[in-house]
């Protein structure tokens, strides 16, 4: 039997195992074999720019300047954000940044501190 999980990106059943990675031939998404064991429930694992899993309460650093919509301020590179909260959606990190206030960030623009 085929014990390879479906693609978490598109849901395709045609995924295959290539060394230590799973590969989806339909959307070209690749993910590590150990990522499947990390997902114990239906909630997807949120990863930072380096591929580290993020959890509620973690601290992260911003890896590039981010413009704040509706304001003339910018979140600078290296800004440390403490006590993040993971949420569903496009911007999957909910946080409070000193000097700016409450905002949502995308996990691809942060790294675990």
UniProtKB/TrEMBL annotation:
Residues 4-32 form the Protein YjdM N-terminal domain. InterPro entries: YjdM, YjdM_C, YjdM_N. Residues 46-113 form the Protein YjdM C-terminal domain. Gene3D superfamilies: 2.20.25.10, SH3 Domains (2.30.30.40). Signal peptide: none annotated. Belongs to the YjdM family. This is Protein PhnA.
């Amino acid at each position: 039997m085929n014990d390879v999980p479906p693609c978490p990106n598109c849901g395709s059943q045609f995924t295959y195992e290539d060394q230590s990675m799973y590969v989806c031939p339909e959307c070209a998404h690749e993910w590590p074999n150990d990522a499947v064991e990390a997902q114990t429930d239906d909630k997807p694992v949120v990863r930072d720019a380096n591929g580290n899993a993020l959890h509620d309460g973690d601290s992260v650093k911003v890896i590039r300047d981010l413009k704040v919509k509706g304001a003339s301020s910018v979140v600078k590179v290296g800004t440390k954000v403490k006590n993040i909260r993971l949420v569903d959606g496009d911007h999957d990190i909910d946080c409070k940044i000193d000097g700016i206030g409450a905002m949502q960030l995308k996990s691809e623009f942060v790294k675990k501190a």
